[in-house]
Amino acid sequence: MSQSRIEIFAAMAAEQPQNEMIWYGLASEYFKEEKWQETIDSLRKVLSIKPDYTAAYQMLGTALVNLGQRDEARRAWAEGIEVAERTGAWKAKQHMEGLLAGEKSKSEFCAE
Predict the structure, then answer these.
(1) Which of 3, 13, 60, 100 ranks highest by number of CB atoms within 10 Å?
(2) Domain 5-108 has what CATH class?
(3) What angle is formed at CA 109 by the lines to CA 104 and CA 112, rounded to 5 degrees?
(4) What pLDDT, on the 0 to 100 scale, is given for residue 104?
(5) Of 12, 70, 5, which is closest to residue 33 (Cα–Cα)?
(6) How far apart are the first and last CA of the chain?
């Protein structure tokens, strides 16, 4: 039996625990499977390694909404907006502003 993508990313994360791209890949796989808490945990790991990873804030807020944690989601997006302003990630900033304003539904999530 072949390994799932989650198993592959989890093994890579165990081997390279300071690689934010691997953790983000793992979070993305959990997200696809709607494993919200695992998604959140992986994204928090991403942000502990690289606090300027704006896409992680976008996905984190969406995962939090899916767990019914709307206040936490708003905080994640607000922090992500601040990071995006500081780093010049204008597209991520615009997207999170829309999410924060409630103009976009969770199904319109994008990780750009």
Answers:
(1) 60
(2) mainly alpha
(3) 120
(4) 52
(5) 5
(6) 33
